[in-house]
Amino acid sequence: MFEPFDSSRSRYASGGIVQTMPGELIDSLWLIIDLDLKGVIPLENLLTFHVKNNDGRVSIHFSQDDRRAGMCIDLPIAYNEYLPQTVYAYDDGQRQTILLPSEAS
C-alpha cells in the first residue's frame, strides 16, 4: 500500500489540462494538495476538484463523498468561462496526474 499524493513522486498535467488551464492554476492545485489537504484529510488516490467563479476569481472546491470534510480555497487567479468545471488528481503509486474527467479511464 502506498500513501496517496506523496510530493516526492513525479507529477504531471494531462494534455487536456495544459490546454485549458493556466500553469499557475495547475501549480495551485498541487499546492492545495500539499499544504491544505495532505495530513488534514485522509486522501484517496483519486481527488475531485470543482472550479468555480467567485466574483471574477477562481475558487477551488474539494470534497470526498465518503467523508464529511470539504473545503473551498479562493485563489487570486482570474476566472475564465473556458476553464473546466471539474478536474481530477490521480495518484497511481508511481506518478500523479491532474486530468479532465473525459481523460480518465
Can you describe what's shown?
There is one protein chain. The protein is an alpha+beta fold. It has a single domain, classed as enterococcus faecalis protein (Nuclear Transport Factor 2, Chain: A, Roll), CATH 3.10.450.150. The protein contains two helices and six strands; from the N terminus they run βααβββββ. It has a six-stranded mixed beta sheet with strand order 1-6-5-2-3-4. β3 and β4 form a beta hairpin. The longest helix has 15 residues. The protein starts with 9 loop residues before the first strand and ends in a 6-residue tail after the last strand. The model has no long low-confidence stretch (mean pLDDT 92).
Characteristic key phrases:
single chain, 105 residues, alpha+beta, Nuclear Transport Factor 2, Chain: A, 6-stranded mixed sheet, 2 helices, globular, DUF960, GTP cyclohydrolase
Please describe the topology of this protein.
Blueprint (H helix, E strand, L loop, with lengths): L9 E4 L1 H6 L2 H15 L8 E9 L2 E7 L6 E9 L7 E6 L3 E5 L6
Parallel strand pairs: 1-6
Antiparallel strand pairs: 2-3, 2-5, 3-4, 5-6
Coarse morphology: globular
Query: Helical residue percent?
Result: 10-25%
Kindly give the count of domains.
1
First-to-last CA distance: 22 Å
Contiguous low-pLDDT stretches (5 residues minimum) are none
Mind telling me the CATH superfamily name? enterococcus faecalis protein
Number of strands: 6
CATH architecture: Roll
CATH class: Alpha Beta
Number of helical stretches of at least 4 residues: 2
Strand content: 35-45%
Instruction: Write down the CATH topology.
Output: Nuclear Transport Factor 2, Chain: A
Give a short account of the largest sheet: 6 strands, mixed
InterPro entries: DUF960
Protein name: GTP cyclohydrolase
Organism: Enterococcus saccharolyticus 30_1
Pfam families: DUF960
